[in-house]
Amino acid sequence: MTTSSVVTDQPEAAWQPPERKGPKPILWLITILGIGLSLFQLYSAGIQPLGLFYQRSIHLALVMMLAFLIFPPFGRPRGVIGSIIDLGFFGAAAFSGFYLVYNLDEIFARAGFWSETDIIVGCITAVTLLEASRRAVGLGLTIIGAVAIIYALSGARGSLPWLGEWLPGILNHRGYSLERVAAQLYLGQEGIFGLPLGVAATFVFIFVLFGAMLEVTGAGKFFIDVAFAATGRQRGGPAKAAVLASASMGSISGSSIANVVTTGAFTIPLMKKLGYKPAQAGGIEAASSTGGQIMPPLMGAGAFLIAEYTRLPYLEIVKVSIFPALLYFATVYLFVHIIAIKQGMTGLPQSQLPVMREVLMRGWFFLAPLILLVFLLVMGLSPMRVGFYAVSGIIVVAGLNGLWLAVRRGQENGALAKEVTAAIKLGFIRLMQGLELGARNAVAVSIACGVAGIVVAVVGLTGLGLKFSSMMIAFSGGNILLALLLVIIASLILGLGLPVTASYIVLIVLVGPALTNEFGIPLLVAHLLVFWYSQDSNVTPPVALAAFAAAAIAGSKTMETSVQSWKFAKGLYLIPLFMVFNPEIITGGPLPVLLWNGFLIITALVAFAAAIEGFLFTWMKPWMRAILALSVIGVFYPSMTAEIAAVAVMLLLLLVNFVQYRRVGVA
Prior knowledge:
This protein is an all-alpha fold. It has helices at 3-9, 24-46, 52-70, 80-110, 116-136, 139-153, 161-164, 178-186, 195-216, 219-231, 237-253, 256-274, 278-291, 302-310, 314-342, 356-363, 367-379, 383-413, 416-462, 464-476, 480-495, 500-518, 523-533, 545-554, 558-568, 571-581, 584-587, 591-613, 622-635, 640-664.
């Protein structure tokens, strides 16, 4: 059996949860807590909304408890010492969360006059959260959270006055006591339970759960089959299918690495079989999967965070993000097409591909919850309520489809009751697996948002954001291009240790005021710029996390795969830059301006891909590539004359390349 037939002939029911090792009592407790967390989130999303602190404190308590069960303290099976440590942190996680629930009225009544117990619990919560972050997210974010707390304590009036003497003048501040910092982090609305965790505990979780339900019911396999049926016969078909599948799955998965592992397991072997080099196959998958994080509706939690920070409707964020996301995927698609032509590739034979009609007949019902989701968002329902209905919808349609298939099998073999009973049992198991998987997938995001809340609280308390903006203006000399270069460098450095969501939150808090107030970039454009640049650590050497995951599947060298992913993902840098100099494509404007800007960026991206590869219709001479590259740069010059001249040069050179192709062909 060929590789492709293995891919295309798997039934949806073939999904199996990943193998989990460990003591059975621990595994059962993880399952119970995961299901409980998902049911709690569904209840608060669609049945009875809860108050801010009730919702967030219970959510964080359950998430941290799951983290200490899932991730051993030393990265290996627990011994006696490890079990004792985990038991202590597990109890601290439960106590720190539910302490607020039991004492919330009394805490509000004290109105700033915190008791000694409040402060102790606040310190316990901060330490517990940082340890959960070390295990679930990584050491980088944990260090940043700890440094932020130490920074708040430094200063003449702080608990660490001696440390303030070592701070540079611009970073110096008055300093705060341990009691003040603990209260700010634990009892304030801008600390651990602030906006980042609030978004994770409401909108993000429900959509992550929706993605988990799609996964366990076979939707991932359905989307991959649709992509292969649509593009498999074209040149470089599996690579193009990887782009489409990653766009569809990545938009709801919430993780570039998870997207690589899910779709790359199918697409990377087929790309290699077709003729792509292992590093190219891994790079294409990494770049495509990273693009899933900028593709609506979920955008890896970005859409909800941007909506909360900008105070714009969620639907507005989704609408303005569609065109830039499509441009990104079109750029990756074009790179794939050019490489396929350069290397003389063909598509897969029809016998090895799924038939679109059969795929749609087998899994059309997976489209119903997505259509319902879009319809309800357009109708103006809150994203959390929409997510509740979407999760309910996928459970209902998948359950009805399973019963229908069971009835058909029962009528054929004369064992109707047996088939229906088996279908109900399998459906219940899949439901429980989906609830647990949704909770597991949300652990890292929620903990990262909790630690990001620590950073946000310290930035607000110490005025670090304004100081960082001053440094940014001083280093850039007021030049917007240099300022944007500093943002790129900062995002790359933060991305080495932080997940995308946390990187975006920290970066926008630090550089957002300067981008909007000093450089005049519109608020929404500034947030999209920072969010897009926060993705670059997935595809940019030396630490490209999505590329590393793809390299493991492709069997290629990690650095070589990282370089390839960086090349394919160049739209991640150029498109946000275009937003800054042509904000009308985001903020809106007269129709002629929008059409011109759309034509401008599309032409520039095509020319850029041709210049990088030295090929479009046929091979290009070095001087043509150099002029094309310079013309792309000219597009970003804030002058209509420069834009017209750059477009004219690009169109002329692309026309020359087409004429050369008509005369001599590809060779």
